[in-house]
Protein: Coenzyme A biosynthesis bifunctional protein CoaBC
Amino acid sequence: LRRGTLPLDLTGRNVLISAGGTREAIDPVRFIGNHSSGRQGYALAATAVARGANVTLISANVGFSGPAGVDVRPVTSALELRAAMLHERDKADIVVMAAAVADFRPDTAAVNKIKKTGDTPTPIALVENPDILLELSRHRGGVSPQNQIVVGFAAETDNVVENGRAKLARKGCDLLVVNQVGQGRAFGTTENQASVLAVDGTVTEIEHAPKEDVADRIWDLVVERLPA
Ligand code: CTP
Ligand code: CA
Structure:
């Protein structure tokens, strides 16, 4: 990382980042969750601050404290994360969906703890969560909605670029940061590696590196696309 020498090229820009992984309540003591640590999202927040941005971080169940100078707003579920993102997006010049959002949530969360009965357990009915990135991409906000930049993330186990291309097109964001996962990669580790796909057709490979360095490279790609 260009430690200590980061350019202040995000000065005056309002950045909105989601990080972590959502939890969908099954009952008061249980949830459906995922392995996202929040480290890449937090690294993006810290690096954006270092480059001069005003950063709001919508943080879903992250087990460590936020970087200095960042406005951290904790949320739990996908619906809470969505409400927070939609509330903040009108102030943002750049929106980054680094959080792992549960695709499904239990249709209803039991009011009381579910008990064993000795019978076959009742299946948990699931409903699909709204696609927050799709909503953010479709209805841009900010001071200048046509210039707002929206960045998505994707974790793929195979056919990374091919699957990423299809996902970028489907989501309608400007950049999609695709991580290859599986075999101990990405989740919970302090290092990462990514292919960044842009709506203009370019692919940028980011070498295996600490998540701060990966974040710095992602900001380079965002800065290139900012209006003057
Ligand atoms: N995402 C979102 N809302 C959802 C699901 C995902 O905003 N309900 C965002 C994630 O934060 C990420 C991007 O969409 O930035 C891609 O997430 P991913 O899980 O890879 O995509 P999905 O559309 O859910 O497709 P898949 O079936 O591969 O999980
Ligand atoms: Ca998903």
